[in-house]
Structures are given as structure tokens and as C-alpha cells.
């Protein structure tokens, strides 16, 4: 048994197998991370908002978890494979190699429009926008970080309020519903009860 363990250890530590094994481990890490993130989220959301029998609820949680884990695993596999291939073709990794690998992986893995993919992409989009707000400071275009955040947030709120008032149907239904409740339903009441306690 020790000899098998030693042979396996020697294999995974052999430098010429490193690239291939990094792809395998990336696939594994995508599965694990996707399951760790999606399972508790899907479980809580199902318990809070779904009204069905236990079997249907469990099926929904497991299906969402499987899809999230699978997508991260396959995206990582495509991304790392393309990075390695480009590095081998050009002798080194170039700055836009990661962009190309992400572009291809994103198209093939996250291109289907479904709830899990939408949530992942919206999460990434929000983090990208925050990163872009910090970029002018990093590049010394703006001296103070405090100058970028107010500009960024005011633009975000300006755009979302414009869309809600003028092009509402392009916003996600959950966002429409929350904004309807806060900004429009607050315009209507006819008793003290539905002014203070109930809405409408």
C-alpha cells in the first residue's frame, strides 16, 4: 500500500504532468466550490419561497447544486486548458490570453439562459463594475478612492431608476417587484391601516 501511495505521489509531483494535473484539480475544485456555494443557497431559498412536497423541494435543491458545480468545473477545465495551449503556442502567457479563455469558456458553459447561470453572471457583473470603479484610482487617473465610489453609485442608481420608470420590462421581475413596492405602492392609501401597516 505504501508503494502505491509513493508512486501516486511521485506521479503528481512530476513537473511534466503539472499542467494536465492542474486542469484535473481545477475541475475538482470547481465541483467542490460550486456545491459548497449553491447547496446552502438553494436550500434556504427553497425553504423560504417554494411551497411543494419534500421530494420536489429536494429535487430542486440537488438540481441547482449539480448545475452550479458542473458549470464551474467545466468552465475551469476549458479556461485552464486554453491558457495552457496559448502559453505553449506563444512561449509565455500574454495579458489577453485569460480574456480569450474566459470568452470561450463563458460562451460554451454559461451561455444558456437559466436561473443558475443568470445568478452567477449577475454576481460577476456586479464585481466587475466595482473593479472598474476602482481602476481609475489604480491607474492614477483619479487621486482619491473616495472620489470614484460616489460617482459610480450615483450612475448605477440613475440608470436603474430611469429603466424602472421608462423601460421597466427590461429589469428582472424580482427587482421590478421590490421597486414597485418601495417607490410606487407607497403612493397609495385610503385608511390609516394601509398607510402604516398593510400596503394597499
TrEMBL record:
Among the Pfam families in the record, one is Tim17
- GO CC term (a single one): peroxisomal membrane
Q: What is the name of the protein in this document?
A: Tim17/Tim22/Tim23/Pmp24 family-domain-containing protein
Source organism of this protein record = Lobosporangium transversale
